[in-house]
Amino acid sequence: MTIDNARRSALVGFGALAAGAAGLAAGPSRAATTERIIPPGARELSELMRRLRRAPRRRDFKTVPMILDRPDFWDDEALKETIAYRGTRKQVWDNTNLAGPWLNLMRNSINAQIFSFGHKDFLAVSATHGTAHLALFDQPMWDKYELATLAGANFRSNTLAIPERASTAFAQSEDPKSVFGADGDTIPALQERGVVFLACHNAIWEVTAKLIAAGNNPDHLSHEAVAAELTNHLIDGVVLTPGIAATIPELQQVGFHYAA
Asked: Is the pTM of this model over 0.70?
C-alpha cells in the first residue's frame, strides 16, 4: 500500500482545500491559525487534531470493490482515532442533504457547547452521506463528472468546500463576519475549528452508479475505477469510512450523541 506522505502532514481537514489526490502540508502559519481557533486549554481536542494530522490517507486507488472488506480500503487509523476520542462531550451529525442547513447547525452547536456551556473539548463529527457527500469531492471531480447535475439548482460548483476567508482569531468569537458567524458555514472553516468530516464509501459507489447511468463517464472507466477516482479526490482532511450507516453505531457505542 502506498501512502501519500503529503496527506500525512496535512491537517485533517483543518485548513484549505486542495484539488486532486495530492495533499497540502500544513505549514507554520496554518498550525498557528489552528491553535487560535481551537479553544485555549482544549487539550483532548488538540491531541486528536495532532493524531489525525499524522494518520495516513490512502488516495492512490486504481479500483475499489463494492463492499470494503479490508482496512486498507478506508482511513482505518484516522477513523479509529476519531472513535477513540477521549473527550467526554462529542456529537455525531447524520448529514444527508447538501442543500440543508447542516453546516450551520454544526457551527451553532459548537458555539453553544464552547462558549455557553464551557465545554472546550467538544468534538463534532459529520457523518456525511446522501447528497451532502457531494461536498466532500474536490472541484476537479465536480467539473469532470458534472456533479452539479446531481447537486441541484443551488450548486453549480462546490461552494461549500471553498477555503474560508473570514477572520480566524479565537478572540473574535463575537464577530459575525468571523468563522464563528454565518461566514463560517463552510467545510474548511469548520475543519479549522476541529470538526471531523467522515466520508462514505457506499455513497461514493452509489454516486458512481448514477454518473455511469447518466453517461457522465468521459474516460469510459469501470464502476470500480470511477469509484476509485472519486475516492482519490476527497478534499483534504476527510476521513474515509467503509460506510456511514455502519459507522454511526460505532460512534454511538462509545458515547457520541446522535443528531440528525
From this structure: yes
